[in-house]
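Weekly structure sync - notes
Attendees: PM, LS, DV (DV joined late)
Agenda: review two folding runs queued last week.

Item 1: First target. Sequence and C-alpha cells pasted below for the record.
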Amino acid sequence: MSDTEPRSSHQVAALFSGGRLTAIPRKAARREQLLVHLAQTLFERDRVYTEREVNDALLTVHEDCSALRRYLVVAGLLERPRDGSSYRRGTPSHA
C-alpha cells in the first residue's frame, strides 16, 4: 500500500453521502480517483457486462450513469468493443 492510498480513499469517501455520489468531480485527478474506486468496487475482473448491467451498477451510486460510463471507458477502466455490445473491466493505460 502506498502512502497516498489512505488519503485517496478518504478523498473518495468524501464524495459520497448515504452511499450515493453527491457530484461527479470536475477536477480530473479527483475524478480519476473516483473512477478507479467505482471500477474496483462495482465491476469484477474478467467478467463481461451488458450496457444495462453497467448502467444498473452505476445507478446504485449516481443518476447520471451515462456520464460515469463514458468517463470509465475514456479512462480505460471499462473496455468495450467498437460495436458497444459489451463491457469488461480494463486496465488504464497509465497503470
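Item 2: Second target, run right after the first with the same settings.
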Amino acid sequence: MASEACDVCERSVRIAGGIGDLWNFAFESTQGLTLELTDGSEFFLCFECMERLPDDHEPTAEDVADLRERTDPVEEDGNHFWHWG
C-alpha cells in the first residue's frame, strides 16, 4: 500500500498497485494522479482537487498555485486514504 500527499490540500491519498498490495491483497482504487501540465510542471493531486482545476483552459502551475491559496489543508482524521468524508 502506497500513499502520497496531494500538492494542494496536503491530504495523504492511496496509490493503488505496487508490491505492498501483493502481500496484503488490497484492491482499493487509486485516489489521485500525477498530472503533467502543458507548461511542463508536474503535481500530484487527489481527484477532488483535480476536479477544482479550471476547465475553460489547460491548467498550468499558476492555476495549481491559485487553487492551493484558496484551499485550507485537510486535517487528518485517522482515515488516511479517503479525502471525502
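Discussion on item 2: Residues 3-70 form one domain.
Action: LS to circulate a short write-up before next sync.
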